Every structure is written in structure tokens, then in C-alpha cells.
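Question: what's this shape?

___
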Amino acid sequence: MITRKNLGDGVVLVLFSGDGPVNTLGRADNERFAALIDELLAEPSVKGIVLSSDKRDFLAGGDLDELRAVQTPADAIAIVTPFLKAIRKLETGGKPVVAALNGTALGGGFELALACHRRIAADQPSARFGLPEVTLGLMPGGGGTQRLPRLIGLAAATPLLLEGKRLKPADALAAGLIDAIVQPERLLDEAKAWVLASSNPAQLWDMKSFRLPGFAPQSPEGRQFFLASWARLHKRSAGCDLASEAILQVLHHGTERSIDAGIAIETRHFARLAASFDAKAKIRTLFVGTANARAMKMRPKNVPVSKPARVAVIGGGVMGRGIAYVSAMAGMEVNLVDISADIAAKAKDAITRIAERDHERGHLRGTVADVVGRIYPTMSYADIGQSDIVVEAVFERPDLKRDVLAKAAAAIRPGTPIASNTSSIPITNLASALPDPSCILGLHFFSPVERMQLVEVIRAGATSDEILARALDFLKRIDKTPVVVNDGLGFFTSRVVTTYSSEAMNLLADGVTPQLIDNAAVNAGFAMGPISLCDLVTMPLLKDIFASMRGNGRRAADRGSVARETVAKLAADERVGKAKGNGIYTYNGETREPWDGLSACLGTKPSSLDEATVRDRLLFTQSLEAIRTLEDGVVTRPIDGDLASVLGWGFPAHLGGVFSFVDRVGASAFAHRAHELADLFGGRYEPPAMLLEMARDNRKFHDV
């Protein structure tokens, strides 16, 4: 709903008051807004306009559910056209317009603010301002790519648009995105005062004397700027980021023309993106999937919400330190347990260095002293008795974990959740150490814990609703994004991602060069190729991972695979990895080249496989194993698997995740290609029964 209210002296407040928790702009809202603006501009008694919201935030942007439903570019254009016309009239209507930003303004909300003659923000620490559309495979469609560079220049606007940055009020003021910050209770008064004092309401870019701040796109500096920007984009995304490409094109070609011509160019590109698979996949996974996960919709409804205040973390290694740090940063008291007081104290020292680094980067919530002061290193289990949750993060060895879990269970109150940060060991195998198996579950964090949002929550057969709910409450407090899966070897993430590194080893055994394997993955959208990843993991550890994932030796993912034999040969030749300078690549400082003894070590001859086939093998093996986890009941919803694959190991976001990739190809075409790969490279590519049924019935994993 959009209403008007008289603020007195001829100033009218336009108030956005949607039905949901935040205000969004759909087609009906845009049409209502356009009609209201026509009405206000036509009334002689209206001297000026103030835009604001009755919610905590101003406007969150466009209606993404509506955008997900568009089928053609024309559908998208129909949504934004009323909005574009309305805000252009605001700029040129001859009446001063102020955006009174009572909270966050993002996407279309901030584009509306850019069209106002002044932007005044309430001093709200939680508020954020920016144009983050690129993170969802979209670009601004309300003139943002044209007004922002005309306001602050191409050099300042481009990174904000390409990175989708969300600025705090003070940073937005410093960058020139807003004009003033006032106390919340003064917001409407200040906005009204500016309207009444304004005598020449016009945008800079509508003046004949206007020149783009900094440099023009066709100037020598501008040409060099765009040349470098394209090079950086290609290096980062290898052609897989359609939205960033469109933004650069529109910035270049739009800002050398009039504002109206530039907006017309933006609209065409926005509409094309909105109708694309990439945007729909990203919105579904990274917006809908993430929002559902963070809203804890999988949390058992019959359990009262808890607020954990004290956590025990057992193990001061990399993962334990990360878990302790994020817990302390969330305001919890942390007992950090290790085998000696000295080792536990050194772990705290390492956490202090992380906190100092984050403080320097502006990422720390609170002071270093306050955060680190909430961490108490100890070697005594007697100190953890009052813990609200225990997280075990010791070495990935079942006997060691069972020993630690038994000691923790003996020290804490009955009914306290006990979580194992294991990446692959079935939780049921660890539950035998506990007197009450209903209290244990898995919390699989990803490294580095302070940066990675995903936590894979593993529910064993005996895990109670209460324990699951309280563990999710803990994850909510430390601001993580949970995906709940059922117990099994490797759960979801390790089970699927292991097929990625395994297939890289199979490709090496087939004589494919490391560079081709890595390039195929990077060009498909992975941030890092699997061979480079294997060198980071190290051959000895990779050998252990493959052994731990063997299970009963009859896994479908292992049919025809020689991955274990391949990594064993590399380890036997004392190839370790990047850390030692001698993995599959040989490293010399910042340079590397394939090890010249690789073919002799593996007994291979040069392969004739092309990049497309290598890419298919790397992508298909992951999606096929993901489908098997769905058949086995490890995951129950494809969107959970998509979210876990994108956030957990960087499956290409533009593909939407391991299940979304199947939808992109089509079940029938995917099954056909899987049969071809199985005939050529082994039974691990045989399509599962679920996929064959989907192909027969022409079904998808996702309806939208």
C-alpha cells in the first residue's frame, strides 16, 4: 500500500506501507506509485514531496517473486516501466522531492532515492544502502546504473555496482550516496525543512552544464578504465557472470549518452537478465534458499526458542578456534578445551590475532578485548558443566571423537546438546559413546569459520526435536546459515564434493593435463580448479579422505574410479601439495608448472579429451551423486542441496547448485548425456532411477 499524508505548508508525505515485514515494489505497486505522483504533481497546492516508509526499513527493492515468474524480457519491462516513468517525472516535475530514509534502502528502493533531489537518512546503525542486484544475477532496472555514476563518477560507482556493496550510513555519506544523516526523530522535520527551502529542484544530470564526475567513458582515462575493468571481470568470472558483463556494457554505453537514452539501454539489458536462467537460479538459491534457511523454517515448531549463553568448544585447532571466535563475537561465554592449558592458551592467542585482523578490516562486532575476554582456555572438563551446548572439533578420528564426547557428556547437564564438527563420520557411529544418543547431532562448519556462512546440520536417527531446535538456536545466535540433512557417510556436502576431487584424479589417470582440468572448472564458474584444490588439501590428507568415503566399497560413485589408486601413486612418490612446493604442480614462489614426472608416476599417455568433455565429467559427477543423496533421504529438498553446494564448496552460483544444474540441462538430456559418459568412462555416470523417472515424466527439481 502507498498512501499520502499532509505534513503541512504544502508538503505531502508519500508513505510506503506494504503488507509484509519489508516494503517491496511489484508491478501493482509501481502503477499505484505512478498514479500518485501524477496526482501530486498536478495539484497546485502541493509544494513538495517527502518519501518514507512506515516499516523499520525504507524499501528492500523489487518483488523478487514477481521477477522470478517472468518468462520473457517483455514481462520484465512491463513491471518496471511504470516505476521508471514515475521517478523520471519526480526528477523533472518542478517540485522538490526528498527521500527520508528511515532505514535500509536497497535495489529499487535506493534507485527511487537516487531519483529524489535530496537523500536524508536516519542515524540507524543497522541501515544499509546500495544496489546489490548483481549478487542475484540481476542488475539495477530502475535507472541505478545511470544515476549513480552521474552522481559520484564512474570510478566510484562501478565497484559498488559490480560487487553489490551495501554501505553503512556513515560510509554512504562519505561516498556521496546520501546527503545527510539525522536523528530518527528529526527525519521528517529535516526533510520538510529542506523541501520548503528548496528553490530550484533539478538533478545535476538534467542541467545543460552537466559533466560526468571524474572522467567520461570515451576519454583516454575512461577507455583505460573500462579496458582494465573488463580484464578483471574476465579473470574473476571467465564469462560466467552475465550480470556484471551487462552492468559494464550499460555503464560504458549509457553514460556517454543522455540520461533517458542511458536508462533505455539499462532497461533492455535488465529485462534480458530478468528472463534468464542464471538470474532465476541465483534468486531461488541465494535469496529464497538462504532466506528460508536463516528464518529457521526447518526448526521443530513444538520446542520453545532458547538463547544459549555459554558454549564449550573442545579442540583448539583451526576449526575449534573459529567456532570459539564466532561464538564469543556473538556475545557468548566460551570454554575452549584442549589437552593442556598451554595448548588451550595458544589457541586463544591465535583467536586474538584473528580478532585484531578483523578489527583492522572493520569486521569485528565489539572490541578485541571484549570478544577475546569471553573466551576461557582450559584443559579441564569440569569447567564446562554449565554449558548450553558443546561443540567437539578434534581431529577427524572416530576413536578420538568418541573419547572426547564421552568426557563431555559426563561433565554437562543431562539433555544438553552435544555436536560433533565432523565432515564425514556418521553421527550414529559416534553416538555409542553417549549415555543418551538423543543428545548428539553433527554441526559441520566450513573453513574459515568466521567467513563461511554455511553449517551442515546432521540429524542422526536418535536425535530429538529438542536437541535439533536448540542447536539451530545456537546457529542463529552466531549468524550462520544452516542446512539440515540426515545422517550417512559423508552426509551431503562431503559425499558430493568428494566426487569433484575424485573425478579430477580420474581425469589425471586418463592423461588429461592439470591445466586443462583446472581451466575447465574455472571456465564453468568454479573459483578454483580441482587440481589446485587437491594441492591445497595435500595428497596424504586426500588419500585419507578417499579412504574414509569408501564405505562398504560398493558405492555407485566409485564404479570405474581409480581416484584412490591415483592419489596413492602421487603420495608414494612423495608428492605432498602446495605447502611443500611439490604436488601435482611444482611451485616456485608465486609461479607453478605441472610436475614433469606426472606421466611417469601415473603411467599415462596424453589424452585427446576436449574441455567440454572434461567440464561435463566434473559437473555431472556431482549432480549425479546429489541425486543419489536425495534417493537415500540424506537431503529431502533439492533447494537445500543447491544452497549447500553453492555456499559450501563454491559450485557455480550462476548454475544455481547441483540440482538446479540438472534443471538447466533438462532431465531427459541430462540422463542421455550421463549414459554417454557411463559408456565412455565408467558406471559412476549411470543415471539413478530418480533421474530416469524425471526424464520419462518431463519433471524438474524446481517448479520456478
User: Anything to note?
Assistant: The chain has a mean pLDDT of 96.
